Amino acid sequence: MSALPVLQSNRKRLLFSIAAFVASSVLCVLFFGACALVLAGPHSSLLPGALQPVVLILCWAGVLVLPFAAAWLVWRRFSRQRNA
Hints:
By secondary structure, the chain is mainly α. Helix content is 82%, strand content 0%.
């Protein structure tokens, strides 16, 4: 039995982890800055009070969902390359 499938699987996991980490690092900074400016910064009066929780939820959803979406795309792309 060859060790090649195990190495490819580990490489796929490594690429998935790197993509998730990089995407979450970039997005956390961007979304935190946007949320801080809109909800608590000098632009806080732009939103009506009822929309502030919606913006907060959308910012957290972006921070939690988008990194895994980017990592999932890396996972799928690597799977396609391996199968081809």
